[in-house]
Amino acid sequence: MNTNRRGFLGAVSTAALLSASGAAFGQKKYDDGATDKEIKIGHFCPYSGPASAYGVIGQAHQVFWKMVNETGGINGRKINFVTLDDGYNPSKSVEVTRQLVEQEKVLCLFNTLGTPTNTAIHKYVNQKKVPHLYVSTGASKWGDPKNFPWTMGFQPDYHTEGVIYAKHIVANVKDPKIAVLMQNDDYGKDYYGGFREGLGKDADKLIVKHVTYETTDPTVDSQVIQLKDSGANVFFNIAIPKFAAQAIRKAGDLGWKPAQYLNNVSASVASTMKPAGFENSQGIITAAYLMDPTDKQWDGHDDMKAWRAYMTKYMPQANQSDANYIFAYSVATMMKRTLEKCGDLLTRENVMKQAASFRGEKIPLVLPGITISTSATDFYPIQAVQLATFKTDTWELFGDVMHAESS
Question: What does pTM read for this prediction?
């Protein structure tokens, strides 16, 4: 694990950024995937398989880059967005990544989804020196520029999110007896490691049951029965949407009513909470860094109004209560601004340089009070969250925005 990872405790203008990269304009230089007319970007996500609820992210990206092309492209160049289905299968991820890099010859990879899947290609893309940007996973390993200088995350890291839940439990639940459901891979282990760190020396005493599941399992019903039978009064749900929803629903069916904590990656109302049943989801706590489309407090916000207009025009059939579309729009905007800063110097090295030079950037739909900053030694763009609880049919934010500072 990267020892330079920041923890949550407790935001320089775009003009400055552009002036810093101004040298890129006026001199043309290209690597694979870039020409006078085109920038080719590679992507994979699970359009099929156990994590297919995330397939809407890839669909949203396709539409976003189509919109960019229709409105003039980036510095006069059209985006050629090549997206492939890896089924959330690491061996398939390796196969499609090789196709993107060696056959398609993309300039960079963007927002490839999944911790186990990105882990499978991590060393390869760094050996090939291909920018591996804004990966769609919060594993703490993506912020390690010393050892993996071509890979950068986007969202707050799982380890620290786990720490936050643990500290909230200790401060707010009397005599906590904690049950944990965990996906049995690096994604689950990252959350669980942070969670144990947050509990401190009492972790073994406070966690009364810890069970895992495989993505090939049909359900997690038997695991949830084990968790309930442990006598736990707290449930930490470390699962992707399909299994997170199953677990919440099963707990409700069993009449088990612990204090529930749900990892952010499954907090979509449309893909998790609604399938779980709103009646089973009341009071669940998560950590947020993006505006939730079902939270009415954002209805009058300029970002949300612009996003809804965009969605209505370009994705009229999409379910606007699915937070995955919010995530996709926000992270794609980050990629668009990175490429804009590259100017005519479209080399892989310059793409990484520009990705690592954001200062207090405001990206659409990120919660107020949270900005994006990166540097050559800081590959964690978003390092703040706010807790939220599920009430009726939406998430309700509470408490302060927790900012990050160097550990």
Answer: 0.90
